[in-house]
Design goal:
Strand order of the largest sheet: 1-2
Strand content: under 5%
Helix content: 40-55%
Number of domains: 2
Order of helices and strands: HHHHHHHEEHHHHHH
CATH class of the largest domain: Mainly Alpha
Number of strands: 2
CATH architecture of the largest domain: Orthogonal Bundle
Largest sheet: 2 strands, antiparallel
Length: 312
Amino acid sequence: MTDAIDAFARHLEQGRRLSAHTVRAYGEDVRQFLAFLQQQASPPRAWREVTHREVRRFLAGLQAARYARRSTARKLAALRAFFRFLVATGAAEGNPAVGIHSPRRERRLPAILREDEIERLLLAPDRDTPLGLRDAALLETLYSTGMRASEVVSLTVTDVAAGNDTVRVIGKGQKERLVFLGRAAREALADYLAVGRPRLLASARKSRPATDALFLNKNGTPLTDRAVRLIVRRTLERAALTARISPHSLRHSFATHLLARGADLRAVQELLGHASLATTQIYTHLTREQLQRIYDAAHPGANPPSARGTRR
């Protein structure tokens, strides 16, 4: 039964061209379901023997184990996609995950940094060292473009050559979009390319072929998603910021700050690469202070002149 999971992963990667992160997550979800099946008193011997009862019991077990609704919903989506693949390939006659409702997801607001906190974060790297130059360029790029960590580690030197202020990004589902590099990001990248990256590249073993990856680690090899998370965490500590954020929080901050300064929602949708406008709308939340400033500046009754008299 594990062979079918491997074939499903290849289908997601090569046929549907999903990201490595999504392929890995779906594969782990289906393997977790298989492990659950194998623990049953009479486990099915083939995928075609699985019924909706096993799927419901699996989901009930996740709920009892206090899995987040978002995680449970993703696992159900993975099972639906997996059995849809099995039906298409003749390995199953029906999809036992169809007709089972996903748990209603919590509507959580994304974690963001205020503009002054972003400023502290971006000034924190030590730009006198190769790694500090890299970290500064990386963080400036994340915040300037709103890119995902997986997208930024896929950048090459060619992508940002000659001080380009635009970058073409291949995002989820192999969708292409255009993002912009602000002046601070361009300057940080120029410093990194001139001094930091050559010194990091010199650290690579001579047996390894030269890489065109833009962001390198201390050994002169390409950064990973995990390394980006560690860099963000380390820079937060250096900036003395207590917020618990991830690289994706810089993407959230990018979108929120654009909207707070009057950017059009559909333009932000394009910059983020969201397929649905509803996904972008979560960023329309504003802090109480922002709302108060907007009200004070725009509403004629917010601060009336004293000579106007008392409104009754």
